Amino acid sequence: MFVTPTNPRFIDNAWKRGGDVYILDIEDSIAPAEKERCRTLIRESIDKASKGGASIYVRVNKPFVDADLPYAVWPGVARIMLPKTESAQEYQRVHEIISQLEKERGLTPGDIELYPMIESALGAVNIYEILTSTPRKLGSFGGGTGYDMAMNLGIEMFAAFDQYAWPAGNIALACMALDIEPTGGVFVPNESGRVDQGDQAAKQAAALHAAGVHHASALHPNFIEPLVKGLSASAEEIAWANKVITAYEKFIDEGEAVSELDGKVIDQYEYDLAQRTLAWAAACAAKDAYKAQALARTRAAAGD
Amino acid sequence: MMPANLPEIPDQIFVGEMPMPKCIRRSVYVLSMDDPRLGDKAYASWADAILLDWGKQPGHDWQADLKSRMPVAIGAVVKGGAEVFVRINAASALAELDAAVFSGLTGVVVKGVTSAQEIANIAQRLDTLEVTRGIAKGATAIDIEVDTAAAVWLSLDIARASERLGCFLLNEPVLCTALGMQTTPMLEFDPLEYIKSQLITVAVSVGGMVLGMSYPLGLTEENAAEDVVKAAIKRARDTGFKGAVCPHPAWIKHCNDGFRPTEKEAETYIKMIELFADGIKRGMASVPMDGKMIDVPVDLRAKLYLKWALRAQARDDAKAKAHQSPAA
Questions:
Q1: In this predicted structure, what is the pLDDT of residue A155?
Q2: Which of A30, A140, A297, B235 has the most CB atoms less than 10 A away?
Q3: Would an 8 Å CB–CB cutoff place A28 in contact with chain B?
């Protein structure tokens, strides 16, 4: 979830919200007159917002990367988000600045991810060149939708159909071609445009989960719980995956490559899918355990 | 009509801003150069642009024939204030350009495009023709009629082939035929949705735009009831199209009214701009409005769309003025 470092209420309470990631924003949620002060608050906000075990990202301003990055590259920051990225050249330049700061500050080179936010048609058509222009790794990625994209395409947002089919799909395909986990890209109608309705988050999570997408972002705390729940592997999915694995391994031992389980065809594809479900369930469980421990530590320290 | 209480918006809202949309071309009406009432029909149509169609008659020197008729046709159709285009074939484009490009022509619409090189060659020939025929350098636009699989697949290369590119015009019936698809709409979804989104994204990436219609009217091109046409235009605009080729004169007014921000939308943009400006004065980065959040991108969008509405209004005013001219 995006949080504004200039708002103590948001930062001080972030650890209680249960989010997996908090994005410290210096960009659009910060008024121009507040940006300088916001930069100076980033370092302390990292510790405050991560107290509940969440990872920390920082969204910088594309026109002010030289001013923002020295305040954003610190231990504890997992990712820098570069808004409105349109070309490999500007992405490379930011990569170089971060590399220099990592060196100066004793951070492992390349450890911080650089996330090129794609919010224009030009960024969407250049996505493959952007993602392959530096050696910096990226675990997951998505884009090609949202306010800025709508503005660039000259459309009103919140129609009852997918207005970003190609940009979002093209970006997801580029990710998969580069072995980067795609995020987003699945259309869920939201004609109201509201950002605070938990049932909308649940629908979004269900659609993403069904498409095999594991990550989503939010602008309101009401989204966190439905997203975390909906994007995690359910108990039923885990049980089915275990059943498929046991059955398929038995088929293989018996010399069968394809067989049936509860009326469904079970083959190598289903077996691989079940393995992925269990791997994702384990990752979710590890993250939940990490957050629970961090929360317990923070609460104990606070005397809660 | 636009609301009277307009906030002040700078000519350049941000560095590198390009006009959005590239031009106000909401309705393109196709007329045959053989039509004896060509000028009257163009004048009465109120279309933003007229696309001239012509044919090569066997046994005739088509080049000499077209060359002699084009200046007259251009003069006839511009009287109502419309831009004027002529349709040419990619396969024989260079010879057709020699016969079709004259002063007063806004641009050419190229059909049957299968490579970016074809567009580069057309642009090069236009460079020469503009010099020899006293046309301002770079004034003649190249629009692409998308009617082949190659034009879709190579759309980015094609769009980048020349700075003259203005619009892609999606010809759904011909494209569907080229793709081996049914031209009778039988599906509950638009089978070209992904292609439409691709063309729009690609065109916008080079500062261009796409003219097209939503499913199924884009395919059937039927003279449907007014509410059906209006709903189709609304969806087409939400898809990202900035205008449409009108197979019927009845579509033109609806396209002119529909492919632009409405008066109600303009009022909303004005409210957003004013609320946000007030919030900024009070040191806020976002302000609520009717349950939605107005922040920097929303404010920027409101300003850009308001400019779009003003440009559309200016286009309508220019056409109205042309219709009042004694020359008409």
A1: 93
A2: A30
A3: yes
Type of residue at B17? E
Q: What is the pLDDT of residue B231?
A: 97
Least confident among A114-123, B16-25, B77-86: B16-25
What is the total count of domains within chain A?
A: 2
Residue A63: pLDDT above 50?
Answer: yes
Interface of B with A in 156-175 (CB under 8 A): 156
Residues 68-127 of A with CB under 8 A from B: 120-122, 124-126
Whole domain around residue A295: which residue ranges? Answer: 235-302
Same structural domain for residues A203 and A298? no
Radius of gyration of chain A, Cα coordinates, nearest whole angstrom: 21
**Cβ contacts of B291 on chain A, cutoff 8 Å:** 192-194
Does residue A226 sit in the same domain as residue A239? no
Residue whose pair of structure tokens reads 């090069």 in the numeric block: B124
Nearest 10 degrees: Cα torsion A127, A133, A134, A139: 20
Quick check: A46 and A289 in contact, CB under 8 A?
A: no
Could you write out the DSSP letters of every residue in B23-75? S---EEEEEETT-TTHHHHHHHH--SEEEEE----TTS-HHHHHHHHHHHHHH
Chain-chain contact of B283 with A31 (C-beta, under 8 angstroms)? yes
**DSSP-assigned beta bridge partners for residue B51:** B30, B85
Tokens in use for A106? Answer: 């004793």
- Mean pLDDT computed over every residue of chain B: 94
**In a shared domain, residues A159 and A171:** yes
Residue B184 pLDDT grade (very low, low, confident, very high; cuts 50, 70, 90): confident
B201 touches A at CB < 8 Å:
yes
- Residue pLDDT, tens place only, B112-133: 999 999 999 999 999 999 999 9
> What is the C-alpha to C-alpha distance for residues B259 and B240, in angstroms, rounded to an integer?
10
Task: Report how far apart the first and last C-alpha atoms of chain A are (Å, whole number).
Answer: 24
Closest-CA residue of B relative to A153 is: B240
Considering the domain architecture, whether residues A227 and A245 belong to the same structural domain is answered as no
| CATH class of the domain comprising B27-258 | alpha beta
ipTM: 0.92
